Amino acid sequence: MITTEEIKRRLWDGANELRGSMDASRYKDYMLGLMFYKFLSDKTLATYKSISGSSAETEAALIANYQKDYETAGAGLTNLLQSNMGYYVLPEFLYQQWLLDISSGEFEVSKVTDSLNHFERTIAVQEGADDFKGLFSGSTLDLSNTALGSSLNERNRNIKALILLFADLNMVALQKGDVLGDSYEYLIGKFAMESGAKAGEFYTPKQVSEVMAQIVSRSKNITSIYDPTVGSGSLLLNVKKHLSRSDQRDLEYYGQEKNTATYNLTRMNLLLHGVKPDKMTIRNGDTLSKDWPEDPSKPNQGILFDAVVMNPPYSAKNWNREELKVSDPRFETAGVLPPDSKGDYAFLLHGLYHLGTEGTMAIVLPHGVLFRGGTEGDIRERLLNKNYIDTVIGLPSNLFTNTGIPVCIIILKKNRPLSAPVLLIDASKEFIKVGKQNELQEKDIAKITDTYVSRETISGYSYLASREDIIENEYNLNLPRYVETMESEIPQDVEAHLHGGVPQANLEELMNLNRVAKESLAQYIKPLRPGYITVTGTKEEVLDSIKNSSLILEQQADLTQKVTTYLGKWWNSLIELSDIDEIRAVREKMLVEIKELLADYPQVDAYLGYQIISDCWFNHLQKDTELIAASKFHELGRKREARMVSRGSGKNKRQEQDGWTGVLVPNELIKEYLYQEENNQITELNRILQEIESSLAELVEAAKVEDSQEEASLLEALNEKQDAFQLVKVKALIKEEVKSSDSYELLHQVQSHLTKKASTTKKIRAAETELNDTIEQRILTLTDEEIDQLIKAKWFNGVEEKMTQLLVTPLNDEIDILFSLEERYNETLEDLDKQLLEMESSLNSLLEELEVL
């Protein structure tokens, strides 16, 4: 089975290799469009096989049967396919037919164009097939575009290569577990990163989308969801992933997109994720120019949805080109129209208008909407007075590819009591830098959503603002007004500088030390005077005392045992997985449980432990569980596959097998755990080789020192680059030297090193070849116990140590703070005065001496 990660890697590598100089934002339409057509063709064949009862064992036989039945039944067969899928692809226009043409040397781009055009014509006359109409329109997939190749032959070659990229992927089989959909989403995201500013029209960063989806999906009884600026559809699909299977089956998807190519991308994306055509209503249009969708049973009234999500264009200028009035029902709530120069609140009000009474809305907007005045201030005041704003989440800057500005997520609800406070979360400092972009980690997303659920005030992170707070701030929601920024620098204490000592107040602010290490720390704290202390002992002594205290040792033993039990429990669940659709639920439960487990230790940041387990999933578990779900664990552990490497270049570039590698068990782990002695012998040989090479390098450098004995004896033995000795030259020079002479000894030394280097290198290669061959054979005969040992090491190696380290890291950090304060106030003003007097005295003495001279 091919895993999601392997598909992602292969397709993206292929995209980079094939697109050449074409802009990523344009190339995506071709690649994703043809990938989708492969899905339509595979789905047609799979449906035909099901309804016809065909027993064809090969795809070629199935296509032949389909062709034969179509010639006999004609419209009867296509009508049956249409009623089952909402579309069909005729035998002669299947993606598989392109592949046959390629293999026979008869491929032409025109055949692809004919196939896409026929699909468009077929769909155009079908009732109820709107979701497929225009998907391959010329404006989206123009196969005559010279960017695909300056000549017809070049375009033929490039499009053929792109078609072959999907040749062996069974798109229908890959729909299970959303493998296909996730791969498609991954490609959209990668193209967005490559497209830079052009990505804003079709992509919301996955981590931002995830925050919105996790919050919105907590609403009860979600049966409909709407995205007025739908882009690629990722927001809709992310919400879907967090709903139960029964809710997913009944979910109605609505979306609107202005850009036609992106509108097509949306429909493809939803269909690939298994959304049925009758459950999706996507429209190509301008959201703000005219209200949509309207309720067919209530003229001039908009449909209300259980969930609304959107990431609109930021501060869109000239949005009101239709000269809309405040009487437009979407803007009646605000009482005024948003300014024509900034469309942020126009989008917000549109979404809010379509939000059901019990629903939840999440929208991404620039921070300016929180504090700008004028009509925007009036709108914000009206929304707050009606208490529609539930939560504001400030995010880091530089999350998006199309803008570096910080943005916020605003959560709105219509059924909030007027007395309910507004939750303000400042998550702007919770991120890591990946390349040029900032990214939220899994732990950051979990912290945001947990705070949203608990609705608690956390110092420096969140605040529950009452109506009185908001009025006092004149309806300004700028986050720094409510959430105090945590000062990284501890304020200076004047008295401590004057008289010495660490302020007692600073000591009391070291919360973790006071919570779990107060007694251990107390023996190193000495009072100086009221309100001030000094620290005795070294930093290492204090830290060792705390680490070895009974409480910390008990915590470490207790946590180690709990983590071991936790990993053992989830080990059994993971190796027994039999359904790929269960993986997401297992992952989420595993992450929640580690967070709950760590909550028992007051000094530990449970979200750091959450990230440790999340990293386990990212590094290995996601891929391996997909494999396990399609096979039996121990049988999979004894499987191997060819290790393919690229050789040659240009026209001679080719893939060749270079041994075998374990499908589940890495060869390196087998070497490390089951062949330690052999591995150690190779390590020792490499150490010897390194020593020889180091000695030779020293002699090379010595030979280049002018007027040295080494130069006189060895310089002629160097190669042209003068960076290595040549054995042939060394042997020739030895013959010319008198035995026991200095030159003879130096040359003999070089010869000995070169000979030993050659023999050691030969031994290493022979030993490595023998060991690799042994390991490749050993994969096939691994015992169940060995597989367990090796996969536990692969998945969870070091997890217990990392978790227990979380107990002492915060204590170590606070000890550093304490000793930095001790150093800060170590020298008093009196000490400095004395030093100044001593320096002044020394200077005077020097001046007197100068006068005498």
TrEMBL record:
Entry keyword annotation includes Cell membrane: no
Domain DNA methylase adenine-specific: 176-488
Catalytic reaction list: a 2'-deoxyadenosine in DNA + S-adenosyl-L-methionine = an N(6)-methyl-2'-deoxyadenosine in DNA + S-adenosyl-L-homocysteine + H(+)
Protein EC: 2.1.1.72
UniProt similarity note: Belongs to the N(4)/N(6)-methyltransferase family.
Classification via PANTHER family: SITE-SPECIFIC DNA-METHYLTRANSFERASE (ADENINE-SPECIFIC), SLR6095 PROTEIN
Top-level division of the source organism's lineage: Bacteria
Coiled coil regions, renumbered to chain: 675-702, 822-849
InterPro entries: D12N6_MeTrfase_N, DNA_Adenine_Mtase, DNA_methylase_A-5, DNA_methylase_N6_adenine_CS, Restrct_endonuc_T1M, SAM-dependent_MTases_sf, T1MK-like_N_sf
Keywords attached to this entry: Coiled coil, Methyltransferase, Restriction system, S-adenosyl-L-methionine, Transferase
A Pfam family matched in the record: HsdM_N
Alphabetical GO biological process terms: DNA restriction-modification system; methylation
Gene Ontology MF term list: DNA binding; N-methyltransferase activity; site-specific DNA-methyltransferase (adenine-specific) activity
The protein's name: site-specific DNA-methyltransferase (adenine-specific)
Keyword Signal: no
Start and end residues of each N6 adenine-specific DNA methyltransferase N-terminal domain: 7-164
